[in-house]
Design goal:
The protein is of the alpha+beta class. It has one domain. It is about 30% helix and about 20% strand. The strands form two sheets. Strands 3-4-2-1-5-9-8 form a seven-stranded mixed beta sheet, with helices on both faces. This is Aminoglycoside N(3)-acetyltransferase.
């Protein structure tokens, strides 16, 4: 959505003060740990843009709270698997030989919105070390949440999502659909720990040198998330509201993951 379209659909400027009120009405409280997914265009015209959204989140959870966001960099993958858009096969070897190695400070996010990218560069924000599906976090629990994210099992029992699951964290979805709900990837891994994988690759620093590293990643299936989400939307543990003009949801990670694991045919597990 263009800025002109955001202005046209807004009843007025969405200020940081209004965002803070909306977050509190939805249920954000001081000391909470929150995994946030945001579509800026759905909120309306925000005075101050992504910065105002982030500062309102900090104000809502206070200095004792921790904010977490995806920091995905999907372009750091093997070009043979690219489809949005694909590149000619004749380019693949050149891309593998010249792709910059992942650097948590320099590698930008891709396809997850302006708020997540601004948050990644916010003073004091930390980032996990997975080259494709990292998370960023700011607050007293950030180091613990981001401490481990295995290359070949980034969403499993030893991952930032697993820490969020066992520490009472919540998910906040601002104008985004269930297909963006990263926490459900943990449920996939718990429901089927030996699930299918695919071969991938990326550029990493190994012993101080850039190398092209091949590895296997778990296969994910976001197409089933909206079906589960329709059930979760009617569950009493989930709170609905609005942030600006955007429909929003707030719910606990552990309950959503437990229900998802049960729905996908396995007993609920605790990582």
């Amino acid at each position: 959505m263009t800025e002109a379209a955001a202005i046209a659909r807004s009843g007025g400027p969405v200020t940081q003060a209004r965002l803070t009120v909306d977050f509190r009405r939805l249920g954000l409280e001081p000391g909470m740990t929150v995994l946030v997914h945001t579509s800026m265009s759905r909120i309306g015209w925000v005075c101050g843009g992504a910065r105002s959204v982030i500062e309102a989140l900090f104000q809502a959870v206070g200095p004792e709270g921790t904010i977490v966001m995806p920091a995905q960099s999907s372009e750091l993958s093997d070009p043979s698997g690219w489809c949005e858009p694909p590149v000619p096969q004749s380019w693949w070897d050149t891309i593998r030989a010249s792709m910059p190695a992942f650097d948590p400070r320099l590698t930008p996010t891709r396809g997850i919105g302006a708020v997540a990218e601004v948050f990644r560069t916010w003073p004091g924000t930390r980032r996990s070390l997975h080259p494709q599906v990292s998370f960023s976090a700011h607050g007293p629990l950030a180091a613990d949440i981001l401490s481990s994210q295995p290359l070949e099992d980034p969403f499993g029992a030893i991952s930032p999502l697993a820490v969020l699951n066992r520490t009472g964290a919540h998910v906040l979805m601002i104008g985004t659909g269930w297909d963006t709900c990263t926490a459900l990837h943990l449920a996939e891994r718990l429901a089927d720990p030996q699930g299918s994988t695919f071969e991938d690759g990326t550029a990493l620093f190994v012993d101080g040198e850039r190398r092209w590293v091949r590895f296997r990643m778990p296969q994910t299936d976001v197409d089933r998330f909206p079906v589960l989400g329709a059930r979760l939307d009617g569950h009493p543990m989930l709170r609905h509201g609005h942030v600006g003009a955007a429909p929003a949801r707030l719910f606990p990670v552990d309950q959503a993951v437990s229900l998802a694991v049960q729905s996908w045919g396995q007993p609920a597990l605790t990582p």
